[in-house]
Design brief:
Blueprint: E1 6-11, H1 19-28, E2 35-41, H2 45-58, E3 61-65, H3 71-78, E4 86-91, E5 94-96, H4 100-111, E6 115-121, E7 129-131, E8 135-140, E9 146-151, E10 169-171, E11 178-182, H5 184-189, H6 201-211, E12 216-226, H7 239-245, H8 248-261, H9 269-287, H10 295-299, H11 302-319
Parallel strand pairs: 1-2, 1-4, 2-3, 6-12
Antiparallel strand pairs: 4-11, 5-12, 6-7, 6-11, 8-9, 10-12
Helix pairs in contact: 8-9, 8-11, 9-11
Amino acid sequence: MLQSNVTVVVVPRERFGYALRSLDSIIQNTDVPFELIYIDGNSPPDLARALQARAEERNFRLIRTEHYLSPNTARNLALPFIKTKYLVFVDNDVIVSRGWLQALVACADQHGCTAVCPLTFEDEAFSVVHHAGGELVWKSMPQGHRWLTERRPWNHLPLAKVNKPLVASPTELNEFHCVLVRTDFFAHSGPLDEKLLSMAEETDFSISVSTSGGSMFFEPASQVSYIPPSPEQLLPSDLPFFQLRWSSDWVRKSVEHMVAKHNLDPSSPVAKHWPRFVFQHRHACATGSRTMPPLNILFGDYGTTLSRREKFDQLLRQLS
């Protein structure tokens, strides 16, 4: 039997309703040997039983907690159990195409890089690009602060409209939907930052790779797809975790910690983008529309808007 040199770690992202579809996709579309660790953060009872049954059938490690987990906390739970050269973090709402894992490992072997991210789509047809590498753009600011923005080429663009060939190349930005990492990176740099509860964890990891002297590659030969929930797919049993993951409290704490940790100027585009993204994402998952509602006109900024929207939603639930 061939020995595995990679461990796949599946963690909860924002919901549970797609978890079995995601897990089965990984098992059915991965041809090379791999270890599997599945992190179950307080999934509903029916899913918990199904995961336990699959763990016994497929002989993989299942780690369950009886409380919801932030993504980095979930990822860190797996680190003590990983014995392979590489690990791959995969969210529990991601499906993969055949050959996805081989391509990630081959790229890491060829280039000796710290991390590799695949071509990530955002639909089951693998037709709309979600992530294809990216760039971190820094500028110096007064009082020693730093200004940062992120550039993600072809985000939300149909693959058919991408105007240049996608080839393996260095990247400065990963996304945690799926990313391969050399396991020894964590021995040198420590675990992922668990104070980043809701946002910025992928930016923080990308910065950590760069500042530690490592490198990252984008490998389009590996293709996966993140499946965002539609209003119909966001089940009632998903809502407590979904609303916690994207809560105003978690995003505020994440942004404040990220700004302080990296000495970012609060006017940096990233610091403004994170609350806006959370507000927009919650709106899109509730309505199916990417168009931003005009609530920010009433409340001034998306952080305040998100907080007041939460209070309004809570009032509606109490009244109903």
